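Exercise 7.
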Amino acid sequence: MTLKGTPALRRTLLLLLAVIVIAAGAFWALKPRPEPDAAPVVLAAASLQEALTDAAKVWSAHGHAVPVLSFAASSALARQVEAGVPADLFISADEKWMDTLGAKGLIRPESRATLLGNSLVLIAPAASQIALTPAPGFPLARALGNGKLALADPDGVPAGRYAKQALQKLGVWEQVAGQVAAGDNVRAALALVARGEAALGVVYATDARAEPKVRIVATFPPASHVPITYPVALLKTSRSPDAEPLRAFLLSPEAQRVFQRYGFTMPIR
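Solution. The predicted structure, written as tokens, is:
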């Protein structure tokens, strides 16, 4: 570009041009830059803690960003989704909370699938000598004595609802309802038994396997409660490009083998 005019005018124009270039550079330097693709955020039932953490490690070994995992009771996580917490995947410990989000249009219904299954067990502190077999009218109250029965909150948490349903089906709920120590989630109930603060507890089999300070007294008959299933779905607000690939991976044989090592059962699809 050729600048015409007196030398003084040319110097002034060149100075102005330099100022414009510097200002433009500063503007682009300050302008927010697009961030790299975010890792998917997964809201998952507390009972999945060890197994899902290991599955995520296998996923990241394939070159993906490590997903952000948040564990809590399914009820608490569902309420977080309802409140607008940003996340990509929801894994519930029962169908009810997934149904709740589905009815409110908060999941992508075509992505919903049954991921895993589990079983329900009666546990005691590792040193306990209690022997019981869950069956209609079994002497649960007598075995408890003055002790507590640890459950996840039976009014909202899936593990607690399964437990209450099983005890009602076997005809012993009314005898022990007054001795229930309710935890915020299944891991809280497990901890009460592990610490000896509850004489007995009802948790998932996978939780009992994860805690060496408890022992499994017996497994509840499958017919005493509805099947324990873990549905997974993409949330409507999901933005991570890795969210759907991660969902597909969790349903794959490779990830399912990880879950099986922790005692989860594989649903019939």
